[in-house]
Amino acid sequence: MLQVRDLRCARGGVPVLEGVTFDLNAGEALILRGPNGVGKTTLLRTLAGLQPPLDGTVDYPEATGAYASHADGIKTALTVTENLTFWAQVYGLTVPDTVFAAFDLDGLRSRAAGTLSAGQKRRLGLARLGVIGRKVLFLDEPTVSLDAFSVRNFAGWMRDVHLAQGGCAVIATHIDLGLDVPTLDLTPFVAQADATGGSDEAFL
């Protein structure tokens, strides 16, 4: 479903990772590890097609990928239900009723998103993944602002819904999600700096 070969990517024109290679089949996920500044966000953005690679290839079926950063990306003037309906309609879909329970939003359906707590906003942002119908997910620190209960809920949705229904995911996270999936430490793939180059780790 997702094939990555000898990928070399950069931020601000400076190479940060090189030689990244892996495969994911339907129902599989991969956790990205590495210290801050190693290039996890840069890799995810490159995989998602938000920036071009310097070299190498990324292959997955057209119009199946979605990228979610650690920003919530919600519309504060809309209710929880209206937010999810908006995103479902963008993709020509309807909101599955199960998504509210999956992300612990049942009691918040009519609440304006702007009145939610940070954790509630995060759950709403993640719930968008359950309505857009994309099979290949690229997730950057998806559990920021979530308590332990909500982290377990997210991991349960990822395992029992997204992966079980044939999706795949690449997830950058510093915490243990409780998913029985492989990890990829990006440290060995850090690009070698050239003689004139520097680092732009502040932007990774």
From TrEMBL:
One Pfam family of this chain: ABC_tran
The keyword Membrane belongs to this UniProt entry's keyword annotation: yes
Top-level taxonomic group: Bacteria
SUPFAM superfamilies noted in UniProt: P-loop containing nucleoside triphosphate hydrolases (SSF52540)
Entry-linked InterPro entries: AAA+_ATPase, ABC_transporter-like_ATP-bd, ABC_transptr_haem_export_CcmA, P-loop_NTPase
Alphabetic keyword roster: ATP-binding, Cytochrome c-type biogenesis, Membrane, Nucleotide-binding, Translocase, Transport
SMART domains referenced in this protein's UniProt entry, alphabetically: AAA (SM00382)
Gene Ontology molecular function: any one: ATP hydrolysis activity
Organism: Loktanella atrilutea
Keyword flag Transport: yes
ABC transporter domain segment(s): 2-202
GO BP annotations listed: cytochrome complex assembly
Protein name: Heme exporter protein A
